[in-house]
Design brief:
Structural class: mainly alpha
Number of domains: 2
Number of helices: 11
Organism: Algoriphagus zhangzhouensis
Keywords: DNA-binding
Pfam family, one: TetR_N
Number of strands: 0
Oligomer: single chain
GO molecular function: DNA binding
Distance between the termini: 51 Å
CATH class of the largest domain: Mainly Alpha
Helix content: over 70%
Shape: elongated
CATH topology of the largest domain: Tetracycline Repressor, domain 2
Protein name: Transcriptional regulator, TetR family
């Protein structure tokens, strides 16, 4: 008989916190709310996480590890553009899994300085990784030759789309493009002017292989 591994209280707290933050927003959930939903005492929760900042910091570290595994976990034999497509699919699912963070990122950054520092460290790492991947696009013949500054600006634009995608959907409620896959389509629309014919073929192949209908198809 297979033994079911019991989830530690410390991990259960994070699971419940993510659920409540997603449903109600960070500002509307206290540690006592989390403890009450779990059926444990506030003192028990406080033993593991003294403050809300501690809880959010632990969640963010969990998020960062998950995405780092995705950024670094390139499948053997995949092209640079194929890897990018897989990464975008994961990023979209990831955003909904931890949607509170993207929706409340400005408030979190302003309220919790240690988390803000960690976010900035993550942005630096993601920028370096993505810029290097885009340079590989050029080497592989998927992107037209570009200066480093142009590649960095392209990465910056895409990072803004990813970071604020969920927020703009709520604020710009009268716009369309809200269905699953539209964030990825918006990113591809940004890249498309720089794709070579070979790049467009590889992009289409990746979409057909892993899913996502491009908006212009």
């Amino acid at each position: 008989m297979t033994e079911i591994k019991k989830i530690k209280t410390k991990d259960r707290i994070l699971i419940e916190a993510i659920k409540l933050y997603n449903e109600m927003g960070v500002q509307n959930v206290t540690s006592r709310h989390i403890a009450s939903e779990m059926g444990i005492s506030h003192g028990n929760l406080d033993y593991h996480y003294k403050t809300k900042e501690d809880i959010i910091q632990a969640i963010y570290k969990k998020m960062r590890k998950e995405m780092s595994d995705s950024y670094g976990g390139r499948k053997v034999g995949t092209s640079s553009l194929e890897h990018f497509h897989i990464l975008l699919l994961h990023l979209e699912d990831f955003q909904h899994k931890y949607r509170f963070f993207n929706l409340d990122v400005l408030e979190v950054s302003r309220t919790f300085p240690t988390i803000f520092e960690t976010i900035q460290e993550t942005f630096v790492k993601r920028r370096q990784t993505t810029v290097e991947l885009f340079k590989e696009f050029v080497t592989d013949g998927y992107l037209v030759p570009m200066e480093n500054a142009a590649i960095e600006r392209l990465e910056h634009t895409i990072r803004m789309i990813i970071t604020f995608w969920l927020s703009q959907r709520e604020v710009m409620a009268t716009y369309k493009f809200t269905e699953k896959g539209e964030m990825i389509n918006s990113i591809y629309s940004t890249i498309e002017p720089y794709l070579t014919e070979e790049g467009k073929k590889e992009q289409k192949r990746a979409c057909e292989l892993y899913g996502l209908k491009l908006s212009d198809q």
